[in-house]
Design a protein that fits this description.
There is one protein chain. This protein is mainly alpha-helical. The chain has a two-stranded antiparallel ribbon with strand order 1-2. Helix 12 packs antiparallel against helix 13 and helix 14 crosses helix 15. The protein is globular and about 50 Å long.
Length: 393
């Protein structure tokens, strides 16, 4: 296995509609920092207890699961563009409810409404990438989407720091504005007639497809490991006595690595499953290094190398699996297949915070990194079996 410079001409040649979608997602992601402030808003502005704020956060995570499934169904029935615009408009409305709610009860309703709208636009966005991109370019397109969102996340963190002084309610107003701006760009820029008009939903259900179930099993494992890492990193740094600024710096470093990592490719693997096996191995290596750092009491700068290594693995893992799932479905069913696969992230958003906090409380940061690394190593080892399950007729 070698890592070498990648010819990025294929990325530059992505269809115009795909590039427009990437730009619009960046605009939308710039306002996405507000979710970090949701518990603070409930406590500071409405007098909610920390327990109530935590329960609302869990309710939001659970609400994203039916939201994503609805988005997949609507993508195949109404069309990609219409569903994307509907989802973003719904998110904007829910954000404004949160910003203007005069009571805690209405704020809680706004938070749940936001969860029910939050993932509607994700399946049609992913399906549209597959519709408009030739099969050899799909992994690059999904990787570009992940890199674009990561890049916007870096800027979003800076915006959060600059705009927090305006007041928590205004942050949600600004997020609503970015949702509406994204919806407007796509409404005007995407083709009126999408390549796949999914009016007929009588095709094969993704839940009955054993190939999709195999991908969902490993995808859920990856999502839990990934979310546990993201939740656990600031907690681990705090437990190790590192200044809070290091959490932001390392998250930024991870995003930058994902962006730059798109210019590299892993050679020696002719198929997606071989590349994913290497991606999981790099993830496991980075987490193993982090466990070693935590075991010797390292903090801050000592996490730089582990974060860079696991982020290089993320470059592969944030692109290849979606391309595989998109290829499993008929064009008219891609929205539902991608929505079913995406349920893994809703499950992870519910499980990972409990897992990360429990492991750190039990054995410290070293236990968290060791368990996550073991999970990544297991996922790497089963990729041959997943290939067999997915490619069998």
């Amino acid at each position: 296995m070698t890592v070498e410079a990648q010819d990025t001409s294929h990325a530059r040649s992505l269809p115009r509609a795909v590039r427009l979608l990437l730009v619009a997602r960046v605009v939308d992601r710039l306002g996405g920092f507000t979710l970090t402030f949701l518990p603070v808003l409930l406590v500071a502005a409405y007098g909610a207890s920390l327990r109530t704020a935590g329960l609302v956060g869990a309710a939001f995570g659970l609400a994203t699961i039916p939201s994503r499934l609805l988005g997949g169904r609507l993508a195949d029935r109404l069309g990609r563009r219409s569903t994307i615009v509907l989802g973003l408009t719904g998110c904007a409305g829910a954000q404004l409810v949160l910003a203007a709610a005069p009571t805690l009860l209405l704020a809680l309703g706004g938070a749940v409404l936001l969860g029910l709208c939050f993932e509607i636009y994700e399946p049609p966005s992913q399906a549209l990438l597959a519709d408009l991109t030739p099969a050899p370019q799909r992994a690059a397109a999904y990787s570009a989407l992940g890199a674009a969102i990561a890049a916007a996340g870096v800027v979003a963190g800076l915006l959060a720091a600059l705009l927090a002084g305006l007041g928590l309610r205004w942050l949600f107003v600004l997020d609503a504005a970015t949702c509406l701006a994204c919806a407007g760009v796509l409404l005007l820029g995407l083709p009126r007639e999408e390549p796949t008009r999914g009016g007929d939903l009588r095709g094969r259900s993704p839940w009955r497809d054993p190939r999709l179930r195999a991908m969902l099993a490993t995808g859920t494992g990856f999502a839990i490991v990934y979310m546990a890492m993201m939740v656990g990193l600031p907690l681990a740094l705090h437990a190790d006595g590192a200044p809070p600024v290091w959490a932001g710096l390392l998250v930024t470093l991870s995003a930058v690595t994902v962006i730059l990592g798109r210019r590299l490719r892993i050679s020696g693997h002719p198929d997606a499953f071989g590349r994913m096996r290497t991606g999981y191995a790099l993830l496991a290596l980075g987490l193993g290094l982090a466990a070693g750092v935590a075991a010797v009491g390292g903090t801050g700068v000592a996490y730089v190398v582990p974060v860079v290594v696991w982020s290089i693995g993320d470059v592969v893992l944030l692109g290849e699996p979606f391309a595989v799932v998109a290829d499993l479905a008929e064009p008219a069913g891609r929205g539902r297949y991608l929505a079913a696969y995406g349920v893994s992230w809703g499950l992870a958003a519910t499980v990972a915070p409990l897992l990360a906090t429990g492991l750190i409380e039990t054995g410290g940061p070293a236990l968290l990194w060791a368990c996550c690394g073991g999970g990544a190593a297991l996922l790497s080892s089963v990729q041959s079996r997943v290939r067999t399950a997915v490619t069998e007729k």
